[in-house]
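Can you give me the bound-state structure? Components:
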Amino acid sequence: MNKTEDMIQTIELGFSYPGEGGAPVLQGVSLTVERGSFVAVLGHNGSGKSTLAKQMNAVLLPTEGKVLVEGIDTREEARVFEVRQKVGLAFQNPDNQIVATIVEEDVAFAPENLNIPQEETARRVEYALRAVDMWEYRTHSAHQLSGGQKQRVAIAGIIAMMPHCIVLDEPTAMLDPVGREEVLSTVRRLNRENGITIVMITHYMKEAAMADRVVVMDKGKVVLDGTPREVFSEVDYLESLGLEAPQATTLIHRLRGDCPSLPADVLDEEEAAQAILHLFEGVAG
Amino acid sequence: MKDITLGQFFPGDTLIHRLDARVKLVLVILFIVELFLVKTLCGFAFMGVLLALAVAISKVPPKMMLRSLKPLLLLLAFTSVLNLFYTKGDPLFTIWKLTASWQGLELALFMMLRISLLIMASSLLTYTTSPIMLTDGMERLMGPLKALHVPVGELAMMMTIALRFIPLLVEETDKIMSAQKARGADFESGGVLKRAKALIPILVPLFVSSFRRADELAVAMECRCYHTSGPRSRLKVMKMCFRDYVALAVMLAAIPAILLGTNQVLFSIIPSALG
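Here's the bound-state model for the whole set.
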């Protein structure tokens, strides 16, 4: 595989915060995020998943191994803005990411920092706000928006850098169900329609299920890596990590004790219903 | 607590909203200078009409303008009383050992008008100018100071962030107060010392959360390539146009008019027999 083709590559990445007894937060993480993919990173609190997110755009730098963003080593100080433009990072609390009071002025913050000419900045602001479906709110003040709208504005602020990849660190953790759905459908659309690579850190199984690939972290290491179907079929192992597979998967897993013919890789309620129906038809017929 | 109007911008598309932020800043400064040049009731009436006209054009509700005076009522009352009794002149009335004078009454009235108009004019500026445009305007007006190594850009960024976070912190203070009240905290009774002590359980969590916010914001800003070295571009380029020059001309023309007006003491409240 050609290295420069990959969006992000971590090679034996290790990290420990200075002065905390040297306990490593990340150890030997080797991960490749392919261009255009949608990767979910799952993990319990303290599994190192947020630290991993911050490694992906040089907010934190590896203490061991290295991180390559489109082939650029994140430790190259002179190219740090290049890395951050390629990989945008969005956080949990939208209130603490929005710098300016007015929506469009906040979205313009990154292009302004990059000294992008005015016409191009205006074009990017429009593109970014349309991409998250917030264009009609451009002159609103940020604190009048709902949580989901604020988070979309925060994401637009990153899109305005024209990144190839967006890393979202628990973007829905502080939102209500409506806001959560708004943000998730926006993220999905950005991946499918705008071709932006997505890395989403989360601890909601349902969110992880919509990714192409799920990476499970525990104690600073990658412990599972595969499609949602592959990962969620390991119900017992996930539970031992303090994670829960989606309810439908767990249900089928329990039924499999008595009916081993049920499939192990059920993802949602619809599939579970189909599987059970299929089983009954088999018994009847 | 919600009455903190600083940083409250009423989006709109009126002539006043569209004026260049730099021009608006200069206009307010000129207006304040003129307020201190004015020495007659007639002059204050003129300034009042000027401001009322601007408020009418801006479509900011007059109630909001009056509300901006509320935090200053105490100061207004205090300076009025001081002026009334401490100005030497023709006696008006006496309470205990203090004598109020006609000149004092005039001075008190003028000072009150001056402060009220000053506050309302600056409130109108913040009501009709988005905080970013405002700090942008200040940054550009202070631009020449960059040559003296004044960190103009950083100062402007600090202002922007302060303006953005004030409503958030007010909201948070409300939340913390409600939470403490729900657990039996009492902020209203007792002496000054007791009430000040009661504020500690509000201030501590507020400080802690502000620091956490600041930390997160700093990382988020770094992620969006914020840096203090090198130039930044702007989404909105400031360009002076016809209306800006007209507004400046009107405000400048008022200065000689006021200076001329002070020589003819029109409508002085001091009875001419005494004067």
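A couple of observations. Chain B touches chain A through 33 residues (CB under 8 Å). The CA atoms of residues 52 and 225 of chain B lie 44 Å apart.
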